[in-house]
Every structure is written in C-alpha cells, then in structure tokens.
Amino acid sequence: MALSKIPAAAFSSDPGVNFRNIIINGDMSIAQRGTSFTGQTSGGYYNDRFKTGISGLGTWTISQVTDAPTGQGLVKSQKFDCTTADASPSAGDFLTYLQAIEGQNIQMLKKGTANAESLTLSFWVKSNKTGTYISRLYDVDNQRVISKSYTISSASTWEKKTLTFAGDTSGTLDNDNGYSFAVEWCLGAGTNYTSGTLNTSWNSKTDADQFVGQVNLADSTSNEWYITGVQLEVGTSASDFEFLPYDVNLGRCQRYYFEEGNNAQGFVAGAFNVSDSPFRYTFLKPMRAAPSGSIGGSVNTDLKLYSAGSDKTLNNVGFSAITTHGARVDIYAPGQFTDGQTGHFYLLNNTGKFKFDAEL
Predict the structure, then answer these.
(1) How many whole angstroms separate alpha carbon 206 and alpha carbon 221?
(2) Rounded Cα distance, 169 and 204, in Å
(3) Separation of alpha carbons 22 and 101, rounded Å
(4) CATH number belonging to domain 10-254
(5) 148: which of 116, 163, 302, 332 fits an S-S bond (Cβ 3.0–4.6 Å)?
(6) What pLDDT does residue 12 have?
(7) Looking at residues 341-358, what average pLDDT do you find?
(8) Mean pLDDT score, 82-96
(9) Are 162 and 233 in contact (CB under 8 A)?
C-alpha cells in the first residue's frame, strides 16, 4: 500500500491495524544526519523527525546509542548528555525535545468537535536524575496546550511511561501539510515556563503554566536522559509499540529530510551535456514541501565531474528549480568542455553530499 493512500482510519488504537502510531521514527532507528553531535547549545534536528529546543540551558552531546530496554525489541535510543552544567537557569531558558506533526495526518482526532478523541502517549525513558518531568501536547494552529507530569523513580533504569490526554473540543486543525501539532518533552526550564499552575487540561497557551514542577537536567555534568519506543495513538490506553520495517520507517523520514552521498563513491548523474549545463536530480521520495537544498563537501575533492578520461575542474555546484519531487543541479565548469561532451558527476568520501530539508 502506498503511504500516500493510507486512510485516516488506519491511525487507530486497534492493535491489529498498521500505522496506529502517529509518531514517526519512535524507535530512534533512523539517523540520517549522524549519530553524535557534541557541544550543542542551540536547537535543531539531531535525529530524524525529532527536534531539540535549547535556549541558554547548558551544553549537550546528543546522540543515537544502542542502550535500550531489554526484552522489548527496541535496540536504539536518543541520549542527552550534559557536558556543561547550568544549575541556575535564567527565566527564559529551556531544553525540550519534540516531534512536529502535519495537520493532514491527524484529522482523525476530530479536534474542535464534540467527538474529539483522547490521545495516549507511551514511551520508555531512563535518567540518573530522578524526579518530576513534564510532557505536553501543543495545538500550534490554535495555540492550545495540555501538559502532564511523569516521574522517573529509579535512577539509571529503563521505565515505561503512559500518559493519556483528553480530547479537545475547541480548535480545529488545518487539513494541510503544515505544522499543526506537536508532542513535547521538557528536560529543564526557567521561571518563564514553570512559575504558574501546570496546565493539565486543554487551554490557551500560557507560558508560565507549561512545565511547572520540571526538574533541571542541566544542573550537573553527570546527568543523562534517554528515550525510545515513543508512541502516540488514539484512545485511552497504550498498545504495544508498533514496529515498522526499516525501509518503511526510512521512507517516512525521507519525506522530511534526506541526504544523497553516504557511500564511498556516490554516482549521481551521467551522460549529460557538461558545457555548463544542468541536470535534473529526482528525489528518492516526494517530500512534504519543496525543500531547502544544501551541498556538503568541497568541489574537486568531494564533488567531482568526470569526462573524456579525466576529472574536470569545477568552479561551483548549486541547486535551482527545487520542487517536492526534485531539483536542478547547476554545474559550473567554464572552459572545461566542448559542446556535446557528456560527463559523470560523483559525490565522494562520505563528505560530498546533497542535502534536502523539508522539516516542519
């Protein structure tokens, strides 16, 4: 079944129905960008489909690791390791971890109607720092939120957490490919986000009520936090984690981000006219929206153009005319060819890469 044709009803709390998990890459198995990022002090995507938010709260190594709860079929997790502590956060500091969700993927929630569905979030978590942590659901379209607390009871021990959130009868979600909804975990926050009363029912977003009671994971360089087995599903109970085949999981992630050129010698295009002529590069999967494109590596070292028995000197390589399905690759190598010659373009050394980003 093509992913684009999966009916909304497939997102179900029925354990016998595939794709009941709204979360993509909840087993943390896909890491196209890399498996370890050191010295992080600002937000971004450090694993597929999950975004880290950091504002002034310590320095972190964020990595995909092989530490996971035993006997669950899970083999990878995402780890946050504090490398520079911040024991006294400023009022506006925060550290969060979230997944952004398209509105068209969650219309089955019936949000904003009298039949609004409850949601259950389940996940495995581990930290040496015990205490209260906060998760929340965030309706971006209507600026509405609901928060729940969970407790890490045993230090450095995998624990499964289950949180059920009531349906919201206010605020319908846009039925499009935009950022409409998010599930989020807080790892630390300043008083701007913790000084009110925890918002445990759906309400308009008030910053001070978001993460009340949250421990500060950034207060020691000994602190670590791990998460895996993330599942968000319709209903009031958690089913077993839904495992998808690796290729299906990867394909779902590539709708939002992918890289070409992870092989030792990545052949990209051949037999095109190379008198400063472009060629069309077709994406592996249609993307969520027309992505931004960037190129990794250096021309003539990691990106090479070969023709007539030798490498040719490249001045530059760029993208234009980017759509959801592909991009034009513009090759600039003036004076290197005669009209009608053909060439072959390569990405080399695990550094030469095409990168396309359509994340929410």
Answers:
(1) 31
(2) 13
(3) 8
(4) 2.60.120.260
(5) 163
(6) 41
(7) 87
(8) 98
(9) no
The H-or-E segment that residue 250 falls in is helix 246-254
The vertex-286 CA angle with 285 and 291, nearest 5°, equals: 110
Residues 6+ apart with CB under 8 A from 321: 327, 328
Q: Are strands 326-332 and 279-282 parallel, antiparallel or unpaired?
A: antiparallel
Q: Which residue has the higher pLDDT, 306 or 217?
A: 217
**pLDDT interval class at 1 (50, 70, 90):** very low
* Lookup: tokens for 62: 């964020």
CB under 8 Å to 153, separation ≥6 — which residues? 130, 159
Token pair in block for residue 160: 């499964």
Question: What does 182-213 look like in DSSP terms, one character per residue?
Answer: EEEEEEEE-TTTTSS----S-EE--GGGSSTT
Q: Using one digit for the tens of pLDDT, what is the confidence trace for 137-175?
A: 999 999 999 999 999 999 999 999 999 999 999 999 999
User: Cβ contacts of residue 140 below 8 Å, gap of 6+?
Assistant: 100, 179, 180, 181, 182
Distances (CA, A) of 223 to 76, 87, 93, 203: 19, 12, 17, 33
Place of tokens 């390589």: 317
Any idea what the Cα angle at residue 148 is, between residues 143 and 154, rounded to 5°?
145
* CATH 2.60.120.260 boundaries in the chain: 10-254
* pLDDT given at position 321: 95
Copy the structure tokens of residue 263.
């092989």
Beta strands, E only, 66-107: 77-84, 94-102
- What pLDDT is stored for residue 3 in this prediction? 40
Is 132 within 8 Å of 188 (Cβ atoms)? no
Helix (H, G, I), strand (E, B) or coil at 315: coil
The answer to whether the beta carbons of residues 99 and 199 sit under 8 Å apart is: no
Query: How many Cβ atoms are within 10 Å of 162's Cβ, its own excluded?
Result: 12
